[in-house]
Amino acid sequence: MSQTNIERTSNSNRVARPQRYLMCRPTYFDVTYSINPWMDPSIPTSVDTGLAQWKRLYDTFVALGHDVALIEPVPGLPDMVFAANGATVVGGRVLVARFRHRQRADEAAAYLDWFRADGWSEVRQAEYLNEGEGDFLYVGGQLLAGTGFRSDLRGHHEAREYFGVPVLSLTLVDPRFYHLDTALAVLGPDEIMYYPGAFDEDSRRLLAERFPDAILADEATAAVFGLNAVSDGRNVLLSEQAVRLAGDRLRERGYTPMGIDLTELLKAGGNAKCCTLELRG
Ligand code: ARG
User: Fold this and answer.
1) Which of 1, 15, 241, 242 is most buried, taking the most CB atoms under 10 A from its CB?
2) Where are the chain's structural domains?
3) Which residue stretches of the chain have pLDDT < 50?
């Protein structure tokens, strides 16, 4: 075991920081169209099961002491439960999404309204394709930005200008992992976990240079949405199956993995992180 591994193993003093999240109840959840390989409209869905699973995620955040705001779901927008895609919020500035697919396009107006009503003064909609925290993840004072399936490279440049922080563009290549938050999770102030197979070669090199100590997840973990995790710096909420596969790796680094069963929402290609937009004031 190397010196750094020893240090990591003994580091169990992770500090949970109280967060403010925005979530959307899956009142109108359904799979009526297919815009990612997980979505099969011929498989039945249950709003009751979706609501109950979502509620467990919500209740867990509240029990951990986080402040969870809610946006009103809109009929006819079945993917609106995936609040992470609605915007990116850094340093009190809000960049609302511009969705690639017309089926989700109208969600943007609901997010613009919500942020204005909630009193945020720096709010605007992205000019270029930008799927919010689905593709933009904030870590260590910088944004990691995904492209290849949804958000546009021009959207990355726009985010750099708007937030005034460095943006590291990463290209996704596996259609199952179509958003950055399906392939990479932010765990701590400068720590990430990711599945290298979801990225092209240049992006893998960039990630290895920038995050030499990252946890590398295997394909099995990615396939149960194990990278779609929400961390408050100590507690890491992710799919139950992923806890069985990657829980020990997280515990070794001092994190507390918490399994949440969101298999109903997985039918639309989303999990814990997709349901959770981080409001960074
Ligand atoms: N059905 C949604 C879509 O394809 C799922 C979005 C999941 N959200 C996420 N942050 N990955 O857009």
Assistant:
1) 242
2) 18-278
3) 1-10
